[in-house]
Amino acid sequence: MKSLHAYLNRYVSALISEKDFEMIAGHFTPMELKKKQYLLKEGQVIDFFAFIVKGAMRKYYIDDKGKEHVINLYIENWWAGDRESFALLTPSRYYIETCEPCEILVITRENKEKLCRECPVFNEFILKLDEKYSVASQKRIASSISSSARERYDDFAARYPEFLQRFPQHLIASYLGITKDTLSRVLKQ
Amino acid sequence: MKSLHAYLNRYVSALISEKDFEMIAGHFTPMELKKKQYLLKEGQVIDFFAFIVKGAMRKYYIDDKGKEHVINLYIENWWAGDRESFALLTPSRYYIETCEPCEILVITRENKEKLCRECPVFNEFILKLDEKYSVASQKRIASSISSSARERYDDFAARYPEFLQRFPQHLIASYLGITKDTLSRVLKQ
DNA sequence: CCTCATTATCGTCATTTGTCTACGTTTTTT
DNA sequence: AAAAAACGTAGACAAATGACGATAATGAGG
Fold first, then answer.
1. Which of helix, strand or coil describes residue B97?
2. Domains, chain B
3. What is the pLDDT of residues A127-169, one digit of tens each?
4. What protein residues sit with their CB closer than 7 Å to strand D?
């Protein structure tokens, strides 16, 4: 829980009191996952988000030709989930699978909504997180429509250097929307 | 203002009272723009969002090779702005230019924050809008990393058929991350 | 109605990226 | 330790897309 506390403090305008944080922490459930275990499978409705305390995961989907496409990569201090399924209660199109053994903190929809209502500092955090996510999405879109494979990789490596150590190249390639072969070629220069 | 009222009602759980809407409307300023006029230019800090009552716009940026890339297309009932600059007070990297004469309703950052604090129904609307935007971004990313030019166009045409009538092909091509030539070719089949 | 800018298309050629198969290495599992 | 799976690289070829110049069609503005 320490790591959640430190993480939240980086988002809000004033440090979170012990009392507030106790309340927040009480709405999360710790869980452990082994390597290659699924947090979510296609077709399920996901009613929680997971904060990653330790470990790494990826979110991907399988297209109509049977190919996997990595949508997100997650490590410590990231949130794993599917907002569409979470918000609209629809079956997810995604898989979320661990790439390493993981320790996570899970919060259900009910608890999240309750915290947002009853704990202003948590609500502030959620707003900031949304903002950050929205800005990051915009940048990823801009990069994907205007840059070559090489440029996208360089952007990625500059923005998320830790990820290069944590995920095999073919997953990063998939995340960038290119094949592992192309990435391998492009890196040789 | 009628159109803003109707639009907001589509997002919130209970219809917005006359009184609430009067308060909301009081925080917006109507404006008109001619064709090819700029709402935002690169380097400016934007401290407002614009709700489009009538007309069409595009947001784009110019890369280091001098090429334009369309990031967003907007028509009636869309919001034009740059969330990064708006939230972080940083100079924008984007241009927002009208493609048709426009009527818009402008809300400043201060007014938006005030409304969120003082008008619960407006706050609810903002949360829903964020959600919708987040889901749409995710889908656009998924499409851009996993689909061919043709598939991306088909997705786009299916999701936003009105846009095909409102924007010239080369802008749609740019939005999809392909050249106008490729789109023209791809459509011939 | 005329003019000029905008837009769409076409052909050719270059470049990028994908596909497939193979191979060697490393890592994981048994 | 042995076997199996996962991973990165390589080469040859195919397919998709970009770049460029030319031209025709369209539409807006005077």
1. strand
2. 2-146 (2.60.120.10)
3. 999 999 999 999 999 999 999 999 999 999 999 999 999 999 9
4. A 168-170, 180-181, 184-185, 187-188; B 35, 148-150, 177-179, 181-182, 185-186
